[in-house]
Amino acid sequence: MSATHSQEKDLNGPINSLLSAGPDRLSSRQADQAALMLRLGLGSVFVVGGWWKLQRAIDSARSADLVEKYTASNGYINEFFQSYLFADGWISAWGFLTALSAFELVAGIALVAGIFVRPLAIVFGLLMWSFVAALPVSTVPGQEVAVSTFFTPALIVQIRDVGLSGMCFALAALGSGAFSLDERLTGRGLGVESADWKSLGLLLRLSVAVAFLAGGFFYGLDHVKSWSGFPLLLALVGIVLASGHGVRLAAGIAFVLLAIYCVGKVSFDKSLWDNLNAVKREFAFLASCLVLMRFSGGTGFRLSDLVAAPRDVFFGRARTQS
User: Fold this and answer.
1) Distance from C-alpha of 272 to C-alpha of 235, rounded to nearest angstrom
2) Helix (H, G, I), strand (E, B) or coil at 196
3) Domain locations along the chain
4) Of the candidates 290, 293, 286, which has an alpha carbon nearest to the alpha carbon of residue 261?
5) pLDDT tens sequence across 198-242
6) Structure confidence at residue 6 (pLDDT)
7) Got the DSSP string for 12-35?
8) Are 234 and 219 in contact, with CB atoms under 8 Å apart?
9) Stretch 8-19: mean pLDDT, rounded?
């Protein structure tokens, strides 16, 4: 192969990659950009949350309060999981929280740095659902509860973790992305040649949409997270994102609402880490909104397609006879 032919091939690579991109496919470069944004957003969640818990766990003056925060009737670990984890005495609540927070911190740093991204994203994606299952709730009609607990279904209270789970799985599919240690250590990024954005865009836009839908339709209920005092606006943003139409606009509005919420949570009476911990999940949602603003949400399961050709959407197009 001549040097000229080799140079032409090298130059044609990025061009062909860009030509292969579209609303349903991201080029390798675009996929790396999307992965970078998601990686930084999700990694920040676990770095902040892990360090916030760990510094309390290793502080003798605050460790008891941390354990109480998680194991009380209005904490985050219900009786089932407390009996399952701590009853036999093989690990204490303090030991469990210390180990969990240390893992979150180290793994979060790894995500930000871009190493072991795929396995860690899958682990975190599954871990998010354990937080939903572990929440102590009471939704039995007519039951009087003598102690404080949650009265809204766990899936709604922890809907942001459901969204984070979807973002983690999207990151696992995209790989490490740009500016990653995986790329530096191996000489290549652990990304993809091109990304199926029809599926991943759908996953990402629904991951953001579910939190806005819950915040809008269940506004004002016990422990429901709503990022704005305008529930109709939240619901509309969620509906538009889920529909697959106007995704960039809806993601932009969502980004502004999240940014305003984060600024409003800042308190000069709190430490830097307390302020960051109060909005840590929002970092991932902000990053996801940026991805959706940049690449939209794919064309998978769009409302217009569901209405116009439901058979094609649900069952795929029939093969043409030759």
Assistant:
1) 32
2) strand
3) 26-137+146-304
4) 286
5) 999 999 999 999 999 999 999 988 889 899 999 999 999 999 999
6) 44
7) HHHHHHHHT-BTTEEEHHHHHHHH
8) yes
9) 45
- What tokens does 173 get? 């599919």
Query: What pTM value is reported for the model?
Result: 0.87
As given in the structure block, the two tokens for residue 71 are 């194991």
Cα–Cα distance for residue pair 155/43, rounded to 1 Å:
23
Most confident of 29-43, 137-151, 181-195: 29-43
Residue recorded with tokens 């064309």:
299
Rounded distance between C-alpha atoms, residue 137 and residue 147, angstroms:
11
Q: How many helices (H) and strands (E) does the chain have?
A: 16, 2
Taking 70 as the threshold, does the pLDDT of residue 305 lie above it?
yes
| Cβ-contact 39, 176 below 8 angstroms | yes
210 Cβ neighbours under 8 A, 6+ residues apart: 159, 162, 163, 166, 238
Torsion from C-alpha of 276, 281, 283, 289, nearest 10 degrees:
-160
Both tokens of 157, joined, read: 């209270």
Amino acid letter for position 121: A
For 283-296, the pLDDT digits (tens) are 999 999 999 999 99
CB count, 10 Å around CB of 282? 23
Strand partners, 137: 150
301 C-beta neighbours (distance < 10 Å), count: 18
Structure tokens that stand for 122 in this block: 């899958």
250 and 235 in contact (C-beta within 8 Å)?
A: no
322 pLDDT higher than 50: no
Using one digit for the tens of pLDDT, what is the confidence trace for 86-97?
Answer: 888 889 999 999
Confidence of residue 148 (pLDDT cuts 50, 70, 90): low
Query: Among 156, 177, 155, which Cα is nearest to 43's?
Result: 177
Q: Which long-range contacts (C-beta less than 8 Å, at least 24 apart) are formed by 96-102?
A: 97/53, 97/57, 97/66, 97/67, 97/70, 98/54, 98/57, 98/58, 100/53, 101/49, 101/50, 101/51, 101/52, 101/53, 101/54, 101/57, 102/50, 102/54
